[in-house]
Amino acid sequence: xxxxxxxxxxxxxxxxxxxxxxxxxxxxxxxxxxxxxxxxxxxxxxxxxxxxxxxxxxxxxxxxxxxxxxxxxxxxxxxxxxxxxxxxxxxxxxxxxxxxxxxxxxxxxxxxxxxxxxxxxxxxxxxxxxxxxxxxxxxxxxxxxxxxxxxxxxxxxxxxxxxxxxxxxxxxxxxxxxxxxxxxxxxxxxxxxxxxxxxxxxxxxxxxxxxxxxxxxxxxxxxxxxxxxxxxxxxxxxxxxxxxxxxxxxxx
Length: 252
Fold this sequence. Notes:
Elements: H1 11-17, H2 19-28, E1 33-34, H3 35-40, H4 46-58, E2 62-67, E3 70-75, H5 78-107, E4 113-121, H6 125-133, H7 135-138, E5 148-151, E6 158-162, E7 176-182, E8 186-190, E9 199-210, E10 213-224, H8 228-250
Antiparallel strand pairs: 1-3, 2-3, 4-10, 5-6, 6-7, 7-8, 8-9, 9-10
Helix pairs in contact: 6-8
């Protein structure tokens, strides 16, 4: 049987994927061992263990020292450390930073914002959804002169006021990013939405067809520093926004 060819950048992960090879590395953590000693610790043949050792040696996870007829196997930590530095540590640091910010925000329970609003739109769900996607048409114009609201209606799309398009290096502000888009059902945007303090925020708009009409439900939740004035402003603003959305959909 021919041996499967593994790309160079994947070889270390291929070596670590086998549980027997991971067990061999665990056995070598306490110090170097001969091939015969290692083979005695596994319910398989010496030949099979030697094959695993060859794979580990090829990717630099072990080094082999010849002592007469014996073969002494040493664990080499450098490839593992490099893999950890490249793949694991950045992800761990990012996750830890996010959890820390969430923990700090959760401790400030009085500063959290949870706004909910609902409106019945006298238009079917298809027309209401088309209007939602045409967000700049009904969103209130409260940004600087020369700016317009940019909304990219795709997952990963951006929302915020700018002088031109974001990709053109235009001056502006990123309010949020579309993280979920389910046609005729749901729009989810993550971002600060103009709040000045360090916050984690998300607003979710859900459409529910009721015959020839549509119920639109909005929930905007924020963790972080939110003052009473901002909280009241967003509570009132979302009610007004849904009314504008309804008017635009009904007159479409």
